[in-house]
Specification:
Two copies of one chain form a homodimer.
Chain A (H helix, E strand, L loop, with lengths): L17 H15 L5 H7 L4 H13 L3 E3 L5 E3 L1 H7 L4 H20 L2 E8 L2 E8 L13 E3 L4 H8 L3 H10 L13 H14 L2 E4 L6 E9 L5 E10 L6 H21 L18
Helix pairs in contact in A: 5-9, 6-8
The first copy, chain A, binds a DNA duplex (30 and 30 nucleotides) through α1 and α3.
Chain lengths: ~280, ~280
DNA sequence: ACAGGGAGTCCCACATCGTGAGAACGCCAA
DNA sequence: TTGGCGTTCTCACGATGTGGGACTCCCTGT
């Protein structure tokens, strides 16, 4: 408390609690601008680094803030609770949306995030400038075997589960490029697994191309996938793949920080991971 | 700072920031247990009411807390930002889910919350003990004219918009009870508007009954609807309607507190409310 | 009308508590 | 090596938040 003279603290007249106000402002700005370092944000608020770190540690101890990488912070698991985000899907959607929105404008593509539910892909997030051009909708379910996101998600299923899937359905050809034979699908998935990313070259819709990469949890399991789509624009650019992977990593980090409950997805596995 | 001796403050050794920790704990418990009064929660934490109110006002000033009614508090709009809840739908879903979950177990029914999108009902929340018995899914879209939620939402459309809707489509009979004539639908909607609630007596699915009530924004406009459904169980119990209305009011209050952006829904109106 | 109680606000002397400069450590890159 | 960044710790000081209590509304029950 060495700054008695100067104290134009925004527009608060909430006297007798300046310290708390400062702490909250620090937290809000830190979570709002995840790309800036703690020192920078603290400097903006005229908070010495020493004090800032002390404050931060309290937010961390209450689960309101989490470190994701060095010098990077994000909202912690407690905010999900406060916000009422109880189920996995809405948690993923909420946490990934800002990241995907940024990615969408960066790549000038429509970005999707999807999870596997009942052998189908459920789209949780759709972000993009001209996203109305695509027929997809958040909450919509689509077949998994022909979309980029679907391939990523299927590629991480354990063998038993995959065999069941490949044996269960009839795989209709949505376009002339759709892979419909179970053997060919299996082969495609192996390629996807090896590459770490997947393409959809007009297999769902003519002149619709997309690239997809996995979002993994702390154990390396694939819990979701994100894709970049373009109409009449092939997406096999490696720079694009890298950008996707980068964002997927950010989403993973945020989910990890949130301590999200991944148990719902574990039944995809052979039971090697403890089920709920 | 008159309590020098006693200070078994949970399990924090985050020394030098006890005040902040106390403040955050107060906030967390207040948002986690919305039914308890501030004085109660504060007493639990050994915080005198006087101090508690001062702390609270800071959270309020930062938008992290909002008063909903007397002695009732809920997470404020800023948490939605921190949590990354940017769009209206996920905001509504997140904020209403805890309330609807409680309602579902209270009524022993499956509860839905839906909004109107492109003349269809989009289900944002589905909560209930035996919810797997129903064919609905979050994110699913259904025709509006035959469901309870749909009727509520349609009943609030302005005349021009409603005429357009009634004139546009063909209304297929999903069951023998489905109302399919535009004139009869209009009549039904007028009844709904007068009553303030709507029924679906096996109009979507045989032996599926439901009752629905509106969720309104600060201007009284209907922005969503919630319903209680039962298989082979009629839902015209007035106690049930009251419980629904009660929860709808809570959802409304929370949305209001969040300062949610309702502009997306305003184009349903004649322009009497300022558009974004 | 009255009492009772709970929500919410304000005041102010006191001394506890947070503050913040600075030193220090590990790491990475130039 | 130097410099910068992220992070943690210490410590003396005094500005800061504290909290008891009085007070005002606005209920609700009698």
């Amino acid at each position: 408390m060495r700054t008695p003279s100067e104290a134009p603290w925004s527009q608060d007249h909430t006297s007798g609690a300046a310290a708390l106000a400062k702490a909250l402002d620090l937290w809000l700005r830190l979570t709002a601008e995840p790309d800036r370092s703690l020192r920078e944000v603290a400097a903006d608020l005229r908070i010495p680094a020493s004090t800032a770190y002390r404050l931060i540690s309290v937010f961390e101890s209450r689960g309101l803030l989490a470190r994701i990488g060095s010098g990077k912070y994000a909202a912690g698991g407690a905010v999900a609770q406060v916000a009422g985000l109880t189920d996995f899907n809405s948690l993923v959607a909420a946490m990934s949306r800002p990241i995907l929105r940024k990615l969408a404008s960066q790549l000038a593509r429509t970005i999707h995030l999807g999870v596997l539910e009942e052998d189908m892909v459920t789209y949780l997030v759709k972000e993009g400038v001209h996203s109305e051009l695509l027929f997809t909708r958040e909450g919509m379910q689509l077949e998994a075997y022909c979309s980029g996101i679907g391939k990523i998600l299927l590629a991480d299923l354990h063998e038993q589960r995959l065999s069941q899937y490949l044996g269960s359905g009839e795989f209709v050809a949505l376009t002339k490029h759709t892979i419909t034979s179970p053997d060919q699908i299996r082969e495609e998935l192996e390629t996807v697994r090896a590459l770490g990313y997947a393409f959809d070259n007009a297999e769902v819709d003519e002149d619709l191309y997309c690239a997809a990469v996995p979002v993994r949890d702390g154990n390396g399991r694939v819990v979701a996938a994100i894709s970049a789509s373009g109409k009449n624009t092939r997406c096999d650019d490696l720079g694009l793949i890298e950008a996707l992977k980068q964002s997927a990593g950010e989403v993973s980090a945020r989910l990890l920080a949130l301590g999200a409950v991944f148990s719902r997805h574990i039944d995809d596995r052979n039971g090697s991971v403890a089920a709920e």
